[in-house]
Design goal:
Length: about 190
């Protein structure tokens, strides 16, 4: 019973009952099985797989239309995001809200929620933020070029055995390994 009282929702109490120890990450295999089951449920319930870049495109189109209406209406690409039904009626928007809330829940229950910057000792916090911004921007641009992000292309497309999605995964991993070779010194 004492162990049950000290351990609750993945949080382990230390000697000081108010301090929460950081728990290890999920094992890779468990996270993979969980993600696979969520993907299967998405296909079964919603009739489509997972993806995230479409939600950002939809939100960008709505904001652009709100701020610069004439310009937004001259762009065919964004017109599908603000014409017709209410923009929040898209399942991707709710999926991204769920991703945020799930990440917050996971960080809180594992004692990993806090203000910190994960980086190597050889770079500053400012450099880390710039590299993260640059990498995120490149990934977002690549997601739009590939017509899907790693979730939509690799997971959902790979699960349906789409050849383009498998080519995307191969290019993603090769690019990741090649880039890691050059930037690994930053994490020392």
């Amino acid at each position: 019973m004492e162990v049950l009282e000290k351990t609750m929702n993945g949080m382990t109490a230390s000697e000081n009952e108010h301090e929460v120890k950081r728990q290890p990450y999920w094992p890779n295999w468990a996270a993979g099985v969980g993600l696979g089951l969520i993907l299967l449920a998405a296909f079964y319930i919603a009739g489509r797989g997972l993806g995230g870049s479409g939600a950002l495109s939809r939100a960008t189109g709505v904001v652009l239309h709100t701020v610069m209406t004439e310009h937004a209406e001259s762009l065919d690409y964004f017109s599908r995001y603000y014409r017709g039904e209410y923009w929040m009626n898209d399942w991707l928007v709710f999926q991204m809200i769920g991703v945020f809330l799930g990440g917050l829940f996971g960080a809180l229950t594992a004692g990993r929620f806090g203000k910190s910057v994960d980086k190597g000792e050889s770079i500053t916090n400012s450099q880390r933020f710039w590299y993260a911004f640059l990498g995120g921007g490149l990934m977002g641009w690549g997601a739009r070029l590939a017509r899907g992000c790693t979730s939509g292309q690799a997971l959902s497309g790979g699960a349906t055995l789409a050849a383009g999605s498998w080519a995307f995964m191969l290019a993603l991993f090769l690019g990741g390994f090649a880039t890691a070779y050059f930037i690994r010194g930053m994490w020392k």
